[in-house]
Amino acid sequence: SILHRAVFTTSAARLDQLPAPTTAEVCFVGRSNSGKSSAINALTNQRRLAFSSKTPGRTRLINMFGIPDPVEPGAFLGFLVDLPGYGYASVAQQAREEWADVLGAYLRERSSLAGIVLLIDIRRGVTELDRRLADWVAPTRIPVLALLTKADKLPYGQRVRAAASVKKELADLGALTALPFSATHRIGLEEAGAHIENWISP
Ligand code: GDP
C-alpha cells in the first residue's frame, strides 16, 4: 500500500499554520481513546507514526503525514491529517469549545479535503460529539469512512449489526461507508487502506 510510505511532515497548533492546500488530504477524527492513533499506525504499517491521546503534549496538535510521490522526489501524492481527538474528560470546557471551532472550520473550509475517516469505538457507537461532527460534514458532501474500531472485542454478528446501525444513524452523510475495524487483529485493514488510497490517488 502507498500508505506504508507515509512520513511525518508537519505539526500545527492552528489551521493557519497548515501548509497551503495543494494535494488531496484525508483526515482522521474521533473521540479520544477511539483507537485513532492505532488505526493510523496499522494503516501505515508503522509502529509510532501517530501518538495515542494518552501521550501528553501531543494531543492538541494537528499532525500531517505525507505520502511521497514515487516518481517526483520531494513531492507528495497526498497527506494523512491526524486531527486532535475530542471529548477528553480532563480538558476544560472553554478549550473544548475552541477545539470544536477549529475542527468545524477545518472540515468546512479545507479545500483539499478528499475524505474523512471517522473513528468510532464499536462498543460505544455514535456519540453526541460524533453526531455534532456529522452535522458539520453533511453539508460539505465530503465522503466519510467510519471505522468501527476494536471490532475484535465483538463476535462477528454483532460487528455487522454495529456497522448497520452506524450507517443508519449517520444516513444524512453523503457518501458513507461503515466498516468493522481492528488495528490489533487487522480486521478491515486492507479494505480501509484501499478506500483511503483511492481518495489520495484515484
Ligand atoms: P486514540 O486516543 O484515539 O489515539 O486511541 P489509541 O489508538 O491510543 O487507542 C486507545 C486504546 O484502545 C488503547 O488502549 C489501545 O490499546 C486500544 N485499542 C486501539 N485499537 C484497538 C484494537 O483494534 N483492538 C483492541 N482490542 N484495542 C485497541
UniProtKB/TrEMBL annotation:
GO terms of molecular function: GTP binding; metal ion binding
Record's keyword annotation contains Transcription regulation: no
Known cofactor(s): Mg(2+)
GO annotation (BP), single: division septum assembly
EngB-type G domain: residues covered: 22-202
Swiss-Prot/TrEMBL keywords: Cell cycle, Cell division, GTP-binding, Magnesium, Metal-binding, Nucleotide-binding, Septation
One protein family per Pfam: MMR_HSR1
GO cellular-component term (any): cytosol
Function: Necessary for normal cell division and for the maintenance of normal septation.
NCBIfam families to which the protein is assigned, alphabetical: GTPase_YsxC
Family to which this protein belongs: Belongs to the TRAFAC class TrmE-Era-EngA-EngB-Septin-like GTPase superfamily. EngB GTPase family.
Annotated protein name in UniProt: Probable GTP-binding protein EngB
